[in-house]
Amino acid sequence: MSAVSKLSLRRDPIRLVFSRGPWAAAWYLLGYLAVGWALFAISLSTTVVGVGLSITFAGLPVLVAAAAAIRWCADVERVRLRPFARIQSTYRQVPGHGIMAQLRARWRDPATWRDIAYLVGMYVPLLALDTIVLALWWAFLAGITLPIWYWAPWQTIHGVRYHGTKIGYFPNGPHGPGGWGLYVTTLPEAFAFAAVCLVLFLIFNYAVVATARAHAAVARRLLGSAEDPLREAKDVLGRPGPLFPDLRA
User: Fold this and answer.
1) Which of 46, 118, 137, 178 could form a disulfide with 222 if both were Cys (CB 3.0 to 4.6 A apart)?
2) pLDDT, block means (10 residues), the chain with 249 residues
3) Model-level pTM?
4) Is residue 153 part of a domain?
5) How many domains does the chain have?
């Protein structure tokens, strides 16, 4: 089953929130925030060190080890993608023995460079996208619970203690001049704010699922086996046309 089918957007907001889609999507994105930086650091550092030392013969084994480390990092991402789609990358076999044979096979392999493109090249844009979407999703989810804890935060201004949750800037208290935003100090205000967050949360679930779908599509494209761009055209040309029956039958 593909990521598209499991991360489906063909549901109304209520059915979507009670499906596994948004929660699985949020977990997938959160997992990238947790391990993506480590995979990026390993891939980038080993590649830079290997390239830097490649001017000497002693650096060649480091380049071979760097390619192996990059493959391991890519395998971690493939494992994370398994709940949505199973992908396998086809690496070239090493013809022969020795450091030079391994070096040529690994670093001339397009699969290695696709791994680097995902682990290093796509790290910053994917990290930024996942962080923004998850931060907004979590903020709306937390806002739904505001009636439970709106009274807990407090601040002291000019010797006066104010209780309530501020969303904005209030240098002179909830009713003082120079402030902007929303300062929730009563239970009705908290319930009104929670109702707005509930609506936004239900709608924003679509953004979370869509983001996970896009992230998974990038991972499948770069970490999976290379696809022939003319495959569909070849399939069409290989089928029997309406005027010519299939003579192979």
Assistant:
1) 118
2) 61 88 94 96 88 72 89 94 82 81 86 94 97 96 93 80 83 78 89 96 95 94 70 51 47
3) 0.79
4) yes
5) 2
